[in-house]
Amino acid sequence: MLKRRFWLFFLLALTMTMPLYAQSLPDNFIKLEPATAYKGQLNPKEVLRFYFVLERGMDVVIESHTSLKRSNTVYPGAVLFHDDGSVIARDWNGGQGRNFKISKSLTAGTYVLRVEDGRGCGSLHGCPEIIKDFTLTFEVQETSLF
């Protein structure tokens, strides 16, 4: 009986200490991998959600890139969240031109990035003249004191 209680306690303790990133995210979230780029379009009133998982502490840089040659492009804005929904950082113009750039030192865990066109589109015609192409880069570097 004592052995059985030990194993029950052990299993309970193990499940309580499992990392939060074990929980599942919706299928429409796009996974970001280090040193990769996401290329796509950001339509007016559209929200794209990305996620990434860090196995250990890392310095992270997430940045959007749009055409700097034209003024009628999307203006990506981003919010970085912990997996519990709390906000870590927001940016809409910290990058080059009207692009966002988020640089943070993060601990191990799962993170969610919400990206949308900060300018939006008030036209009934859907702003067909806007260049919707953008690129999202995700870079990580191991956090180290030395």
Summarize the structure in words.
The longest helix has 15 residues, at 2-16. The chain has one domain (25-142): Jelly Rolls. The chain contains one helix and nine strands; from the N terminus they run H-E-E-E-E-E-E-E-E-E. 10% of the residues lie in helices and 42% in strands. The strands form two sheets. It has a five-stranded mixed β-sheet with strand order 1-3-8-5-6, with no helix packed on it. A four-stranded antiparallel β-sheet has the order 2-9-4-7, with no helix packed on it. It has 146 residues and is mainly beta. The model is unreliable at 10-22 (pLDDT under 50).
Number of helices: 1
Rounded radius of gyration (Å)? 20 Å
Give the tally of β-strands.
Answer: 9
Spatial sequence of strands, sheet with the most strands: 1-3-8-5-6
Helix and strand succession? HEEEEEEEEE
Q: What is the C-level CATH assignment?
A: Mainly Beta
Number of domains: 1
Strand content: 35-45%
Mean pLDDT: 82
At CATH level 2, the architecture is: Sandwich
Shape summary: globular
| Share of residues in helices | 10-25%
Biggest sheet descriptor: 5 strands, mixed
Question: Low-confidence spans: pLDDT under 50, at least 5 residues?
Answer: 10-22
**Fold-level CATH name:** Jelly Rolls
Termini separation comes to: 50 Å
Helix vs. strand class? mainly beta
Secondary structure: elements and pairs:
Layout: H1 2-16, E1 30-31, E2 36-41, E3 47-54, E4 58-65, E5 76-82, E6 87-91, E7 101-106, E8 109-117, E9 133-142
Parallel strand pairs: 1-3
Antiparallel strand pairs: 2-9, 3-8, 4-7, 4-9, 5-6, 5-8
